[in-house]
Amino acid sequence: MKQRLLVDMDGVLADIYAQLIEFEYQELGIRQSYEKMNGTSEVDTFKNALEYIFSDGFFRNLPVMEGSIEVMRQLNEKYELFIVSAAMEFPKSLTDKFYWLEEHFPFLHWKQIVMCGSKTVIKGDIMIDDHFKNLDYFDGKTLLFSQPHNSSGNTKNHTRVDSWSDVAKILL
Fold first, then answer.
1. Based on the structure, what is the number of domains in the chain?
2. Which Pfam families is this protein grouped with (predicted)?
């Protein structure tokens, strides 16, 4: 029986920081640097982050994380793979996220997509996420995908990965 692998979307498959940087630059002419973001949340870093995140189409047009498509294709063959997103926090994102996955990860079946409110109800063997709040309760193996908001602090029992190449080295 294959192990169940759960993969987050925002900050893991989709580059939400790149999108926020671009939105803020287009609107305010401010170009944030990743170095200045370390240790701060998206809301603390970007003046209008919530406005951007709640806008129509924000999640539909997120850039894809480098290397994620090919590694996910391989992981899909080896694991019982599910995309798990706490999308209910941003209701406008539901359709956007579905069509984004369909466009960039067409090898995934719609039955492999879980949109939820809290990830505490999700069970599996391995979880890849960029938020401690989703990994800390998880009973299985956890991979913390590096993002500016999780750069400081103790990773606890989580294995930090900085790229999809790191994920491949561990899981393939």
1. 1
2. NT5C
Q: In angstroms, rounded to a whole number, what is the distance separating the alpha carbons of residues 138 and 23?
A: 33
Asked whether residue 27 is assigned to any structural domain, the reply reads: no
- Cβ(83)–Cβ(113) under 8 Å? yes
Closest CA to 62 of 1, 97, 14: 14
The CATH code of the domain that includes 81 is 3.40.50.1000
Is 10 one of the catalytic residues?
yes
Give per-residue pLDDT as tens, 24-34: 999 999 898 88
Question: Which one is catalytic: 10, 15, 96, 129?
Answer: 10
pTM for the model = 0.95
Per the structure, the complete domain to which residue 143 belongs is given by 4-15+60-171
